[in-house]
Amino acid sequence: MSATLRAEFLKLRTTRTAAGLAGLAVAVTALISTLEAATAGTGRGMAIPSLATPAGLRDALASTGFALIAAAVLGTVITAGEFRHKTATGTYLDQPDRNRVLAAKAIVAAAAGALAGLAAAATATGIGLGFAAARGYPLALPAATIARYGAGAVLGAGLLAAAGAGAGSLIRHQAGAIIAVFAWGFAVELVVGGTATAVAPYLPYTAAALMAGVTSGGGMPPIARGVIALPFPAAGAVLAGVAVLLAAVAAASTARRDIT
Amino acid sequence: MPGAAPGVLPEARLDGGSGTAVIEVRQLTKRFGAVTAVDRLSFQVKAGTVTGFLGPNGSGKTSTLRMLVGLVRPDSGQARIWGNRYADLGVWRRKVGVVLEASGFHPGRTVRDHLRVRCAASGIAVSRADAVLEVTGLDGLAGRRAGALSLGGRQRLGLAAALLGSPEVLILDEPGNGLDPAGVAWLRDLLRQLAGEGRTVLVSSHLLAEVAQTAGQVIVIDHGRLIWSGPVSQLTTATGQAVVVRAPRAAELRAALQDQRAAVRELADGRLEITGAAVEQVATLAAARGLPIFEITEETGSLEEAFLTLTGGERRPG
After folding, report:
1. Which residue range is the domain that position A249 belongs to?
2. How is chain B split into domains, by residue range?
3. Chain A residue with minimal CA distance to B145?
4. Is the CB of B66 less than 8 angstroms away from the CB of A258?
5. How many CB pairs under 8 A join A and B?
6. CATH number, span B8-229
7. What is the DSSP letter of B20?
8. Model's pTM, two decimal places?
9. Average per-residue pLDDT for chain B
10. How far does B124 lie from chain A, in Å, by closest CA?
């Protein structure tokens, strides 16, 4: 396993894809966070409450919604990219145990996604707290809550990336897999979340977003009103379950498919 | 490891001089939907030989090679290397170098990094990357992104990756595709060098001329079926291709050859055109009878003609 894992980490470091997607996630997070913080309490823009209030500060700090989806996309690219660039042949020649390859990719995706989540959360936190401090507001949220949002972004992005790796392995077509991820985040969860609020917290993006404190969207559609967040460990368990389930289905499918 | 106790593989190789089957394909069959790509195909590749795996485009060569290395699951039959499935070779997998894709690289990854990744995945020392870059003439392009390489450069990179583990067995699928004449000459020299080092090479091609200068053995398939296998030198004999001889005692030689059931025709310039006997057989017979020979040649292009004869002369789009 260690050789396969080492190779997968090396693959990630030797192209610009991961850094590019993480950079995009941070840039969009910075843009959204800045817009939200700059307009907070003014009634303009996204009508964010003042940064002096817990809700206003939360919206500015927890603007990592796009970063969470970007992490899932990164996961799909890690697996589906092998088929797009026809590198799967070499990968399976070096390690014919396809389950082992998939496990290594899921681990690498989780690590890369978590890093992207960390960078995005740090950016949003820095911007939100910076604006609040510049306006002379006292800290409207407990430090533990701010830390939990950050941890939620890291864990949520990591587990969504691992789930994305499973989805990419299952779908194989890279563009199709990316479209599927966005369609899921923008459409499926939006519709289901809006119509069945009791189910929404168990959907992967919503679970991750609520872990990270994201309610106003952060570059994604806002979470539907009335959706109640699961406790942090339960949300993490839901995400881990989705990642494991997708990986298991992908493993069962991948093992039988020909690499032509 | 099924079929092989630990330690058997190296001994099998060391003891296995020419004559031991390193690659064995038995009754291999693969269907893709309604199309039977490979149809009860059986052949062996002996240790230390360069074997050309020939057939027109779409004849089932690539499917066979992919089944040999476990990328495609056969519907029935077996494909073994050193008596084992590729997936069961363990660390000895490093000793099997494979080239199947002319462009199996991430276009944004540099040439050296591509090889570093392959080294890491196979547990091979990274220092081998620089060694094979030199062997394949890519050392000047190590920092270039793979996507910027010419087709010839990509073929070289594929070969470089295959050579990382100093392989005892090389399986190459159409490695000459897209190479310019200089690249073809380079590939020929490389295969000769590998053969000279005693490695076992199975190289597929749809062009007999491409492998005829390096391969001692050929396996010809068409429509997924074995058409012919044996030494290149016997290919012309098997298909009735001609050997041309200039001999001062032509009439005696002609009679001797006809005694051996070869067909002999006298050309306008007095030379004899012989079919049904290989060049070695003609020369040996002449020597045995004390008949001098001034010139003996296989007809130019006869190998290609033999190949076309075996495969029905059908030319298919690439």
Report:
1. 2-256
2. 8-229, 242-298
3. A15
4. yes
5. 80
6. 3.40.50.300
7. S
8. 0.84
9. 86
10. 9
